[in-house]
Amino acid sequence: MHRMYVYCATNPSMPGLVKIGMSNVSPTARVDCLGQTTGVPTPFELEWYILTHRPIETEAQIHKVLSAHRVSQNREFFRCSPETARNAAVSLGHRVHGESSGFGIAYTLGRPSYEMKALGVAAILFVPFAVVLFYDVRISLLSALLLTSVPLIGMAIAHTAFASAEEKKIAEAKEADQRQRNSFMNDGVRR
Would you kindly state where each structural domain of the chain is located, as residue ranges? Predict the structure, then answer.
């Protein structure tokens, strides 16, 4: 089984509430989809996430610990702070990634993860060229320009590839949400 995510999200239009959910797409893609429905006035914000092989069990454990804070039994919303929810997850032994203060390398300077991956590719490609530039002083200016352009081209290619992969995940999450909404609507019509 592949790893999935359990995430904590907040919404400025719902102060004092957190949503603890799970997703098979990146938590940022999932949270983006949550905020794109017409019933939600403002976008959700990702607070933290857990990467797990047992998402159903992990989510259920956190829901159980936070049960006194649950707003409604058939909803994933809890009246508590993201830190309280995070502490519940940590108390269960889960490794929590990303916090309100930032998302480490994947979200440095507010950049999406695919941009940071592309920058990483460029940095890796640049190292051999930097060695050549600094240790071979006989290199011509034209050669130096050509050598330094390779990492930039690599970064552009990587950026495009990672961005399209991220867009595909977001589209898949939107389709899954739409299928779920349609299923709920059909269930309501049958009753």
Answer: 4-91, 107-190
